[in-house]
Amino acid sequence: MDSIADLAKDAQKSGERVGLAFDSIVIDGGVPLRGRIEVRGAKNLATKAMVAALLGDTPSILQDVPQISDVSIVTRMLDAYGVAVTSPEEGVLVLDPTNVERAHFAQIDALAGSSRIPILFCGPLLHRLGEALIPDLGGCRIGDRPIDFHMDALRAFGAIVDKSYEGIRITAPNGLHGANIELPYPSVGATEQVLLTAVRAQGVTELKNAAIEPEIMDLIAVLQKMGAIIWIEPNRTIFIEGVDQLSGYTHRAISDRNEAASWASAALATGGDIFVGGAKQPELMTFLNVFRKVGGAFEVHEDGIRFYHPGGPLKPVQVETDVHPGFMTDWQQPLIVALTQAEGVSVIHETVYENRFGFTDALVEMGADIVVHKDGLESVTRRVPRRKLEQAAVITGPTPLHGADVRVPDLRGGFSYLIAALTAEGRSTVTNLGIISRGYEHFVDKLEALGAQFTLEG
Ligand code: EPZ
Fold first, then answer.
1. Which residue ranges in the chain fall short of pLDDT 70?
2. Residue nearest to atom 31 of ligand 1 (CA)
3. For residue 422, what are the β-bridge partners?
4. What is the sign, positive or negative, of the torsion defined by CA atoms of 130, 136, 142, 147?
5. 122 is a catalytic site residue
6. What is the pTM of this model?
7. Whether residues 427 and 339 fall in one domain
8. Same domain, 282 and 189
9. Cα–Cα dist 133/177, whole Å
10. Which of 140, 375, 388, 458 is catalytic?
11. Is the CB of 353 under 6 A from ligand 1?
């Protein structure tokens, strides 16, 4: 067995492998993307399944793990807690939690960066070590609000939450017991927090208004393999019967539907034809309906989905982002680029996040006609009643896009800039590319495989 020091070095190396050696890409647009690429396991499952391994008494094996920097961050965090993470072959992680130990706060603080995953270590660490330290993930971002559902849930299990200047210290001097929890909103992260804590708490937990995203169902499958007893009832209610012991799992991560939807939108916007190997229809049904209504075509195959522009004009749509089975908030950014090429007025309502249209400013600079209404739109007929969190983007097309210099603001917004640059006539420079490698495996190689014209800059 390798020493912890060697593993730390390996983990460091795997971080470097996914980290990009360049910051900018110069794209000559106007070339339809054509070819085949593969998507692997979902970022939003793989990272959570890695945290779940902390709960087992024996090693876990996770397959189809993408080489993305979020996986690298969680690898290094687990390593800091004494979980030996090795990769016997590409895409496979072995996570051995036999020697879990306290980590130095500075180590965790340095690794956490802008990731939200550290929050999910709370339950497993409370069970394993009796204490969890959550670093300040960046100024005001760790105020009560963004993780209030998580902290309220942990308190309901009997945890004590203390805030300090460096972050949040959570302890459970009397252990954790089952709880009755109703989430104010079906939050993905808070649902995962409850699952990862309740499986080893004493007694039964009832979680109402849970998120039921496919990645959550896959996390439940992982936990069941470990020995957990979890009942999924109708109406977003989940019952978890706590058990005394969990063992390791062997699991193949669910496919990354967000990455698949991103490449689908890239095919549509550039007038191209992309076969996304590994894409699965069931998790993409809502996206596929919208894709078809916009005028895109797709074929579902055994080993993936072919997405293509069948010719003719694209059509405008009205879409609301929502929790599953609704249209995911992570799909709207790439789709909006395709909608700039549709004939007419499209409206996208963002109901999951308060402020997720900032990325459209750069698209407007590139020639798009997009107006963001911060308080939503009264006049548009809505499928679900007006909610507090919402803003609307009105996209009028078709507008030719032209090249520009743009800086990646966040993961999905950043990928939409790549699509816009590929769609635009002329040359664009997209900087701050490192953010895209958080969630898109080998995206530069994939662009090359699809015939994109570009050069990389340091
Ligand atoms: C997960 O974030 C995903 N991230 C997000 O993907 C995804 O957009 C989101 O779920 C919705 O599907 C990961 O899985 C790592 P939430 P999460 O808790 O769990 C509010 C991507 O690009 N809220 O469902 O953080 C929150 O502010 C990323 O891949 C609270 O108010 O999302 C938001 O408005 C981005 N208090 C809403 O709930 C809380 O304590 C939904 O957030 C928690 C959440």
1. 1-20, 113-114, 136-145, 378-389
2. 146
3. none
4. negative
5. no
6. 0.93
7. yes
8. no
9. 20
10. 140
11. yes
